Every structure is written in C-alpha cells, then in structure tokens.
Backbone:
C-alpha cells in the first residue's frame, strides 16, 4: 500500500507540472499553443499506433485506440455513447462518420484540475491530435475530435472520421 501511495504522489506531481506547462505555454504564445500541442499529440498517436491492425470500422478502430492507450499506460478511458435522440451509434453525414464519445477517466482533465487550469486548452488539443494520428494509422483517414461538454466527471465529444482524406 505505501508503494501505491508513493506512485500516486509522483503522478500528482507530474500532473501539476503538466498543468503548469499548459498554463505557461498558453500565456506565452497564445492560440499557437493549441496548434503545437495538436501536432505533438498527432505525432504521438501515430507513433503509438504504428503497428496497430488496420480497419474501416469506426467502432473497431476505437477499440484499437483504447488498446494502444492502455499498452502505453495512458489513462484515457472513453466509450462510444448513443444519446436517446440519436437513431444509431454512428451517423453518416456529408463530412463522414460521426460518433459521440464520453471520456470518464482523463489524465489531462485531472492534470488541469490539479493545477487549477481551464479545460479546452492546449492539453485537450494534444488529445485531439493523438486521436487524429492514431485513427490516421488505423483507418487511413483524417478525423476531428471536438468537445461538446467539458465537466468535472467526464467530457462529451463528437468524433468525425472524414470520408475523403
């Protein structure tokens, strides 16, 4: 048990450091911080998913993204979510396939809360980039992850995997 408490304390220190970095970079360079973080996340997503199996199925691809995250000790627990007013899990739009996701465990959100920094900033953009890079490797298509709601206990996001990439 003491080892677990020590690991948790180290993780909280790291989370505070991440929040401080996000706050500092956003203050220093403004909106450009979002683009830089997105590109860093995309590179990481591509690197982590380099050997992941390929698929055209969005739900299967998301399972693979979750597996890639777990294999790399990333605490981003997410799941597809079908709202009561949606006829099916995946909507086919002119842009591409759209699916809603709920993120219950998110190391980024926890980092931001630990430091006292707002959500939807550069660290969240790093997550968007990660998904974009991983899905590019797994599905061969570009994608966009957008926050619809950012909250204390979870975030609600829309993922679009574009038709033409």
Residues:
């Amino acid at each position: 048990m003491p080892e677990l408490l020590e690991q948790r304390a180290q993780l909280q220190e790291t989370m505070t450091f991440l929040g401080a970095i996000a706050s500092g970079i956003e203050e220093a360079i403004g909106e450009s911080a979002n683009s830089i973080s997105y590109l860093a996340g995309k590179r990481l997503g591509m690197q982590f998913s380099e050997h992941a199996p390929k698929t055209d199925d969005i739900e299967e691809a998301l399972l693979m993204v979750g597996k890639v995250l777990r294999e790399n000790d990333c605490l981003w627990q997410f799941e597809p979510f079908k709202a009561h007013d949606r006829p099916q899990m995946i909507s086919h739009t002119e842009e591409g396939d759209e699916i809603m996701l709920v993120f219950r465990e998110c190391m980024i959100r926890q980092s931001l809360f630990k430091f006292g920094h707002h959500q939807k900033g550069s660290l969240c953009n790093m997550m968007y980039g990660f998904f974009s890079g991983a899905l590019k490797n797994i599905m061969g298509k570009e994608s966009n992850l957008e926050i619809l709601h950012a909250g204390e206990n979870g975030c609600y996001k829309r993922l679009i995997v574009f038709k033409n990439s």
Summary: Strands lie at 76-81, 90-92, 96-106, 143-150, 155-162. The mean pLDDT is 83.
